[in-house]
Amino acid sequence: MTTKHILIVDDSKTVRNLVAFILKKEGFRVTTAEDGLDGLEKLYSQNEIHLIVSDVNMPRMDGFSFIKAVREQQGYRDLPIVVLSTEGQEKDIQRGMSLGANLYMIKPAQPEKLVRNVKMLLG
């Protein structure tokens, strides 16, 4: 079985490092990006990304625009996307889900729950 590759998109270095640490410990390969534009660049240039974990509030390109851009690309319509954000209002959750996120988690997320959801989405 090939190691699943996860892209983490978050403008907080602390959050990127923490989520990367949690997922690497579970055996995943991880690539990080500091905002939506960086995320798109990494997504298009990396060998097969299997899942994305993205924040919403980021400079240059926010998470909502990032999800929309990913979903507009034919090859990424079914790529699992987990939003991990401090924005927990119903309108934010609904917007994220309507743009194509598979799951919306509120920070700080419990590591076990994040890992369980990632594994579930990856089948």
Write the layout of secondary structure elements.
Layout: E1 5-9, H1 13-25, E2 29-33, H2 36-45, E3 51-54, H3 63-71, E4 81-85, H4 90-99, E5 103-106, H5 111-122
Parallel strand pairs: 1-2, 1-3, 3-4, 4-5
Protein name: Chemotaxis protein CheY
GO biological process, one term: phosphorelay signal transduction system
Pfam family, one: Response_reg
The number of E-state strands comes to: 5
Give the N-to-C terminal Cα separation. Answer: 13 Å
Specify the structural class: alpha/beta
Mean pLDDT: 95
Radius of gyration: 13 Å
Contiguous helical run count: 5
Domain Response regulatory: 5-122
Protein name: Chemotaxis protein CheY
Keywords: Phosphoprotein
Pfam family, one: Response_reg
Describe this structure in words.
The protein has helices spanning 13-25, 36-45, 63-71, 90-99, 111-122, and strands spanning 5-9, 29-33, 51-54, 81-85, 103-106. The protein has a single domain (5-122), classed as Rossmann fold (3-Layer(aba) Sandwich). With 123 residues, it is α/β, with parallel strands linked by helices. It has 5 helices and 5 strands.
